[in-house]
């Protein structure tokens, strides 16, 4: 029997190509994995009448670990986002996004090693919205005026921002535990508590309480606008940053931009029962089927997954092999070349070939990483 059984959702757009590349390099580490492959998304709508059929969720719940390629969310069709549904159904409350510089990547910064932990279930992303002009919205506007003494214009739409003690405690505990387990020294709580006292204020108060449980890890906080500026000016000052959903969405892209862009940004959605690994990027439909997309974000998500399942040595070897291919600069996709139309850029599957070759190379034969 395989040591690990893992659900693999190839995704759509460039998903199947980057997923296959990631699966090949993970298998090349010789970790014994039995892949349970299930499709989800628009492609299965006709067959199952649901972009996220129950058997896919059952497979993930049973195996407790899954890796997925990106899935397209069509705009304006009423079809639900499978990416959001997965996080909600499986209560994947922490989204971990490491952003790290690898030598050889064209970027304005060197030596960046930041980790964003984004709360994944609450805040303005909770999906509690009231459309402009709806009778329910007008009733809510009246109630808010009656209860809060503040007038909202009658032609306003409203999105609700819930932030709970429960939700904040668990994501900070995850952030501190991850920092301890991964040799990190500092956690920064990001907020706008000076303005939103009952949501971000609660977030900050709760963070301070949780920080007392982890005396070995330094704790500080930053107001989100200042955080954005400091990340650009002196990113080396930061380590693990824990943020509410919306700030995490925006600042994790900023951090990806500091370190080479979406083609290199991995991610992990973590809950108490299940972990789901996926790249930060989307399905990049214009490159679908062209063997052009960069598979490294998906491969680095695989590195996080290997560490999560207790195969840290294999995860480290895979990360070093990817870093070696980046440093050599030959077998990389168009987005990592100095010019986007560089004819020496290779395709998705050739990057996998190069990483597999690098995995077999003794460490002293590659460039220093
Ligand atoms: P995107 O990430 O697909 O593309 C943004 C830009 O980055 C495009 O220029 C694209 O070509 C490029 N790009 C993305 N991944 C790349 C890769 N691996 N290699 C090289 N270039 C790459 O974002 P988008 O265009 O906003 O979204 C497209 C679709 O993906 C939408 O339907 C969206 O809902 C979905 N999406 C899914 C996820 C997910 O599955 N978690 C995340 C984000 C977006």
Describe the overall structure.
It contains 12 helices and 12 strands. By secondary structure, it is α/β, with parallel strands linked by helices. Strands 2-1-3-12-11-4-5-10-8-9 form a 10-stranded mixed β-sheet, sandwiched between helices. Strand 8 (186-191), helix 7 (200-211) and strand 9 (218-223) form a beta-alpha-beta unit. Helix 1 (15-28) crosses helix 10 (296-308) and helix 11 (312-328) crosses helix 12. The chain starts with a strand and ends in a 10-residue tail after the last helix. Nicotinamide-adenine-dinucleotide binds at residues 14, 18, 70-73, 83, 262-263, 278, 281-284, 286-287, 293-294, 297, 335. Residues 14, 18, 70-73, 83, 262-263, 278, 281-284, 286-287, 293-294, 297, 335 line the site of nicotinamide-adenine-dinucleotide (NAD).
């Amino acid at each position: 029997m395989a040591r690990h059984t893992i659900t693999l959702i190839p995704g759509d757009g460039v998903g199947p190509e980057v997923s296959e590349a990631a699966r090949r390099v993970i298998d090349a580490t010789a970790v014994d994995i039995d892949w349970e492959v299930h499709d989800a998304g628009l492609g299965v709508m006709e067959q199952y009448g649901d972009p996220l059929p129950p058997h896919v969720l059952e497979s993930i719940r049973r195996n407790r670990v899954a890796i997925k390629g990106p899935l397209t969310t069509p705009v304006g069709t009423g079809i639900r986002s499978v990416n959001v549904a997965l996080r909600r159904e499986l209560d994947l409350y922490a989204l971990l996004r490491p952003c790290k510089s690898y030598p050889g990547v064209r970027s304005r910064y060197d030596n960046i090693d930041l980790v964003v932990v984004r709360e994944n279930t609450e805040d303005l992303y909770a999906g509690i919205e009231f459309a402009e002009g709806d009778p329910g919205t007008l009733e809510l506007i009246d109630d808010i005026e009656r209860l809060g003494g503040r007038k909202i214009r009658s032609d306003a739409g409203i999105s609700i921002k819930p932030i709970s003690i429960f939700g904040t405690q668990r994501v900070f505990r995850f952030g501190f535990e991850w920092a301890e387990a991964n040799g990190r020294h500092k956690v920064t709580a990001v907020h706008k508590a000076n303005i939103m006292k009952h949501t971000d204020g609660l977030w900050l108060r709760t963070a301070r309480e949780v920080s007392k449980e982890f005396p070995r890890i330094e704790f500080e906080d930053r107001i989100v606008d200042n955080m954005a500026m400091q990340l650009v000016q002196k990113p080396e000052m930061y380590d693990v940053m824990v943020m509410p959903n919306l700030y995490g969405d925006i600042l994790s892209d900023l951090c990806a931009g500091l370190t080479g862009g979406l083609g290199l940004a991995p991610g992990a959605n973590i809950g108490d029962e299940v972990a789901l690994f996926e790249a930060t990027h989307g399905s990049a439909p214009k490159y679908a089927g062209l063997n052009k997309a960069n598979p490294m974000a998906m491969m680095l998500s695989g590195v996080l997954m290997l560490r999560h399942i207790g195969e840290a040595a294999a995860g480290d070897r895979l990360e070093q092999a990817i870093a070696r291919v980046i440093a050599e600069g030959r077998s990389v996709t168009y987005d990592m070349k100095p010019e986007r139309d560089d004819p020496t850029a290779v395709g998705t599957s050739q990057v996998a070939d190069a990483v597999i070759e690098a995995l077999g190379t003794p460490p002293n034969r590659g460039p220093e990483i």
